[in-house]
Design goal:
Chain lengths: ~260, ~250
């Protein structure tokens, strides 16, 4: 992992490259990264403010609290299927610590998540009439754990895709399924016991619930829930990075 | 002795896969249908190669196509792990492999952006890149094109930028794989001058080339590879003669 720090300039440049290329030659350019979440929120406001009503109070705010972190996770995972594979040309020709590629993928998605939050929080205060609560400070540690958890998962996915190209398509389907098995667009307290048992087997549920606790329900995370997040993060990072370390010597020959 | 590159009995086997099964479906089908099963064949690209390269030495690797030169260079660079044997590198020496020029250049990025990206791929930090930036631009003679996307460069310009970057990365040990075969005569001349300068600066150079004139001129020692076997190690003039004999043998 020390190589990740030593090559931080490379990680920075990889993330900047992707951010620059994403909107290069478009008229709005960088403004798109702000316009995108803004339009997302507007669409949800229209759909759930006028077409489908009911559900938890302040529904659109509730939805965004879950959807934005979910998008970060899903985008990271989807992009990480190509982290090693799509950099094959580089990996076959330069001795470079390959950890930087999945990490850069997560940071690229994180940059977009943070930009979305920059749009989201002022909107929450102005349009959704949400008031700042003390519990919001717990957002930061949850975010940090969520990022590290995602990095671990991306290590697994990027490694697996090198050996089985199917993983790319599998991840896409799995994410779709996982979206519905995570309490993002419904309140976990309103589902049946048997279904909520299933939801609690999904590690991502704990992260989304934590976000909802501190931002929506305005309560601090209980200590045992925090422990769950920490354990999940350690498991994900530990397993993911071990798998990556074992397999990475073969990457140059397999990509 | 430290400071030396020691290649100790290095062998490398590649698994050649016919019907390569890299999807789950093909694996499953392979269980039932013999015809679709993955066939594995082991190819020894290198067999028991050993040599030492002293600091400041220019070491040439020659051999026919497919003799294992580039594989050996990649093993020394740490891109491939050796199947057997090991490579001992000088402690803490920055080593640079120029397997191909302009690796990691992105066509949509400008020349300047590519210099920063590519240099960081080789492990330089921003301060170090800023320090060499001027020299890279000067060497490549592309001052007017630094804000142009690399996709609009000619192949010669692309190579100049790549070489300009490579020579300024300040490696103690350079692994060069046939990168001199690009550009016009004037540029090739410039590259040769640069290698002379490296030699004078006491840098260690491992050099793969088909150009026997260059090998004779600059190398202190050569290794001739044939089908992964080191068939000659020593004096450049004799090595080149051996290499020519191999080529003649192939034709007769």
């Amino acid at each position: 992992m020390s190589s990740v720090f030593r090559y931080r300039e490379l990680i920075r440049n990889l993330v900047l490259k992707d951010l620059k290329l994403k909107y290069r030659d478009s008229v709005l350019g960088f403004l798109w990264s702000l316009a995108n979440p803004l339009l997302l929120i507007l669409v949800y406001s229209f759909v759930f403010g006028h077409l489908f009503t009911g559900g938890p109070p302040n529904l659109v705010y509730f939805l965004m609290v879950g959807i934005l972190p979910w998008n970060f996770f899903a985008q990271s995972l989807m992009m990480s299927t190509g982290s090693i594979l799509d950099n094959g040309n580089l990996i076959r020709k330069v001795a470079v610590p390959m950890e930087v590629f999945p990490v850069a993928t997560v940071l690229f998605s994180l940059a977009q998540y943070l930009l979305a939050l920059i749009v989201f929080f002022p909107m929450a205060l102005l349009f959704f009439k949400v008031s700042v609560a003390w519990s919001w400070v717990a957002f930061v540690p949850i975010l940090v754990l969520h990022i590290l958890f995602t990095v671990g998962m991306c290590f697994i996915v990027s490694t697996a895709t090198v050996f089985y190209r199917d993983i790319r398509h599998f991840t896409e389907i799995l994410l779709m399924l996982l979206f519905w098995l995570t309490p993002i667009i419904y309140d976990i307290r309103t589902v049946s016991d048997s279904l909520s048992t299933v939801l609690y087997m999904n590690p991502l549920s704990y992260f989304i619930l934590a976000y909802q606790d501190v931002l929506y329900r305005n309560v601090f995370l209980s200590l045992d829930r925090l422990m769950v997040l920490i354990i999940l993060t350690f498991l994900s990072l530990g397993l993911g990075y071990s798998l990556f370390l074992i397999c990475k010597v073969r990457f140059a020959e397999e990509v | 002795m430290s400071g030396e590159i020691q290649v100790i009995n290095v062998s490398k086997a590649f698994t050649i896969r016919h019907n390569k099964a890299d999807s789950l479906k093909s694996k499953v089908i392979g269980i039932f249908h013999k015809r679709y099963r993955e066939q594995r064949e082991t190819l020894w690209a290198l067999k028991g190669v050993s040599f030492n390269v002293s600091p400041g030495e220019v070491f040439g690797l020659v051999g026919r196509n497919g003799s294992g030169k580039s594989t050996l260079l990649k093993i020394i660079a740490g891109i491939y792990p050796p199947t057997q044997g090991k490579v001992q590198l000088p402690n803490g020496a920055r080593m640079g492999a120029m397997i191909e020029l302009g690796v990691g250049f992105h066509p949509e990025l400008t020349g300047k952006e590519n210099i920063f990206l590519s240099a960081s791929i080789h492990g330089l930090n921003r301060k170090e890149i800023e320090a060499i930036y001027g020299a890279v631009v000067e060497f490549s003679e592309l001052d007017a094109f630094m804000d142009t996307p690399v996709k609009n460069y000619s192949s010669g310009m692309h190579a100049r930028l790549g070489f300009g970057l490579a020579v300024n990365l300040n490696f103690r040990v350079l692994l060069i794989d046939e990168v001199l075969a690009v550009g016009d005569e004037a540029f090739q001349h410039k590259c040769m001058d640069q290698i002379d300068r490296f030699q004078a600066e006491g840098k260690t150079i491992l050099f793969v080339s088909h150009s026997t004139d260059v090998v004779k001129k600059i190398c202190d020692q050569v290794c001739v590879l044939e089908h992964g076997l080191p068939v000659f190690l020593g004096n450049p003039d004799e090595g080149v003669e051996q290499y020519h004999a191999l080529l003649r043998g192939n034709h007769s």
